[in-house]
């Protein structure tokens, strides 16, 4: 069953969290869409993921290439179905997640910076929508450690 997980960034950088979650998704055999709202931001994140720390290799690509459909992790910017037919979706920078779309996936992650009022408001709106139809959890980065702050069953 699909699940929605909300992550409020604090001390942990976005690229590190994305790498951790994406690695777990790939271990499950899921393809992932990493959805943002701005091409330049996704290009920046693409570079950070290629230069990531540790020994692990995180196979991914930026949308718009000839191999989009074969990418285990596809970085996109904007609405519409991802070419890699994902089973999981990471939404950053207030990228929209349609509840019907979310229900068809295995996992949805909404990642946001709680220090930005507009990002916090958008995440709250997404929480209200998605937690009506999916089990949802809210995690917050407290001093570099993730703590579960809330959990809600659908309905």
Structure annotation, total helices? 4
Mean pLDDT metric: 92
Q: Which fold name corresponds to the CATH topology?
A: Rossmann fold
CATH architecture: 3-Layer(aba) Sandwich
**The CATH homologous superfamily:** DNA polymerase III subunit chi
- Secondary-structure element sequence? EHEHEEEHEHEE
Give, in spatial order, the strands making up the sheet with the most strands. Answer: 3-4-2-5-6-1-7-8
How much helicity do the residues have? 25-40%
Low-confidence stretches: none
Count structural domains.
Answer: 1
Task: Estimate what percentage of residues fall within beta strands.
Answer: 25-35%
Overall shape:
globular
CATH class: Alpha Beta
- Radius of gyration, taken over Cα atoms and rounded to an integer in Å: 15 Å
Separation of the first and last Cα atoms: 15 Å
Which structural category fits the helices and strands?
alpha/beta
State the major sheet. Answer: 8 strands, mixed
Q: How many strands in all?
A: 8
Describe what this molecule looks like in 3D.
The chain is an alpha/beta fold and 155 residues long. The protein has one domain (3-152): Rossmann fold. It is built from four helices and eight strands. It has an eight-stranded mixed beta sheet, sandwiched between helices. The model has no long low-confidence stretch (mean pLDDT 92).
List keywords for this structure.
155 residues; alpha/beta; Rossmann fold; eight-stranded mixed β-sheet; 8 strands; 29% strand
